[in-house]
Each structure stands twice: as C-alpha cells, then as structure tokens.
Design goal:
Blueprint (H helix, E strand, L loop, with lengths): L1 E5 L4 H6 L5 E10 L2 H12 L12 E3 L4 E5 L2 E6 L12 H8 L3 E4 L5 H10 L2 E4 L5 H5 L2 E8 L9 E16 L6 H19 L5
Helix pairs in contact: 3-4
C-alpha cells in the first residue's frame, strides 16, 4: 500500500503506518546528522532554544551537497547517511523532540525501535546510492540553520514534493523489517549448519 503524507505528521498519521508500506512526503523535511542531534540535546539541557521545531517533523539523516544560485540554495545530491551512526543519540532525541519520522538507510537499534513505539515515530528507509534521485523530490530550500557546523552537518530546511519512495522500515508498533530479516538469516544459517552436520 502506498500513502502520500504531508509534514508535520500527526500522531494519527504516524500510528496508521505499518512496516513494509511505501510513503511519499510533501512539506518540510529537515536534515540532521550526528552534530545536529548533539547540539539540539545540548541546547535543551542548557535551556536554550533551537532554531527549528522537530515536533512531527521528518528528520532526514543526510549530509546533502548544496549549491548556491544567486541568493538561493539548491540541492545537488541528498543521499542518506547510515542511520546506525545516530543509535546512541536517537532514543533521547525522539523522547525530547518528538519527530514524526526518521529518514535514513540501514535501520536503527532496538532502543530506538522502543522509543519510536513509545512516542509515536516511524523509520522511513530511502534507497542508498540514489542521492541525485532523492534530490528530485526536493522542490526548494527554505533556509539553513547551524551552518557553522559545516554543509553536511547543518540543518537544511527542505521543501519536499512527492519525496520518495520511502519504505516504512520500522513502524510505531515495534515492528522492524530489519529485525525480521535478521531473524530469517539466523534461521537459514541454522538450517544450513544442521544440514552440514556442523555444531551450533
């Protein structure tokens, strides 16, 4: 089943999604990797404001390649970063800032799956190695925050138009395509070892 949703995502939007469904997004998508997570959590701890609202947002694990054209920015390539880099930060980030969706590649840890289930968030997987294709789903760039962190680490405020396809890799009910695949791999390995008469 394919769905087209607009950000910011409501909790009803998020909870309606099931692992394996395909989603396209319209609206604002925010980029954010390690440094954004770290800075946002540090600002919150110090009681300082942050320049964007992550509630219900689609947070894209992406270090885009940007080009300035006159006074405006445009996206050259927007490939996903491997999300496991953010495993140690994501559960607290989800708890404190309540994004509606995380976009990335490779899946995330069980603590993140648990945080998504508790607070209402989904993981949307985008194809790796298709950075230029992903950029086609971005119609314009509204701005950039924390540019001092560097181009790939800044918060880019992107306007999405039919951005996708994105696959619900982890839903807000604790279901993970990655966990299912890992379980099947283990089962197949066990069958092969048994067939070959190898010890467990």
């Amino acid at each position: 089943m394919t769905k087209r949703l607009k950000t910011p995502l409501s909790e009803d939007d998020v909870r309606s999604l099931k692992a394996g469904e395909v989603v396209y997004l319209d609206g604002v998508v925010l980029t954010g990797r390690d440094e954004v997570h770290i800075h946002a959590l540090e600002h919150l701890e110090k009681g300082e404001s942050i320049p964007v609202d992550f509630k219900g947002a689609a947070l894209f694990h992406c270090g885009p390649i940007m080009r300035k054209s006159g006074d405006a920015w445009e996206v050259v390539a927007a490939g996903p970063t491997t999300s496991s880099r953010m495993n140690s930060l994501e559960p607290e980030f989800i708890e404190k800032f309540r994004p509606g969706a995380i976009i990335g590649k490779g899946g995330m840890s069980q603590p993140t799956v648990d945080a998504m289930k508790k607070h209402g968030c989904v993981y949307l997987a985008i194809t790796g190695g298709a950075a230029v294709l992903a950029a086609k789903g971005i119609s314009s760039v509204s701005g950039v925050e924390w540019y001092e962190l560097g181009m790939p680490e800044a918060i880019w405020i992107l306007n999405a138009d039919n951005f996708g396809p994105l696959t619900v890799g982890i839903d807000s009910h604790g279901n993970s395509l990655y966990a299912s695949v890992n379980e099947k791999v283990k089962e197949n390995e066990a069958k092969v070892r048994e067939r070959l008469g190898l010890k467990k």
